[in-house]
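Need tokens for this chain, all 221 residues.
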Amino acid sequence: MDRAGYGLIETLRVRDGRIPFLERHLARLGGSLGELGLPKPSQDVAALVRPFAGTGDAVLRVEVRDGRASVTVRELPQLGPPAVITASEPHQPYPHKTTERDCFTDAGQEADVAEADDALLLTPEGWVAEGTAWTVFWWEGDTLCTPALDLGILPGVGRARVLEVANRAEQGRYRKPALAGKGLFLTNAVRGIVAIASLDGAPVPADPRTAELAQRFWPTG
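Here are the structure tokens for all 221 residues:
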């Protein structure tokens, strides 16, 4: 495969003047560079992003391409509960956070046309996969559930944090009907934990356990 111009992305949250999961982002970036055989950046990525700490709340996008790293800054997005649709665009394996994101871009455009906030993708076989930039979780009785990594979803920093603070969760293969009537939430390292308001127009029931997890998501030290 021609890797010219092919890049990796890390999207970091600046929160209360800190970058909470910086070391985790750097570890994932380094691992992906090694697995994909891409050149390491000539700059120290940690040194590039640390000056942005102390700026309050913001989002940093680090892009590593052809051995160079760049950082851009944007405002924090809306964090209210989103209305989500199921995209017709099939999910494509995305085990590394690369710049090749066509399926997510197309799914996001579907959401815009449907006047929704975001979209959830299914694999070509119909398994629940992930959102355009987030992992989905839901409550099944006393059990927290989420799609398994072997579906080709991104090993998200936010996903790993939820598994850490929840202590345990069932990771598997689920059809979309498994989500009906469940307390759904999304997570990533920018948004934290955000309850989903509706899926395909059906209201999602609130679950107090989601709010409790959200309170524990961000490190305090």
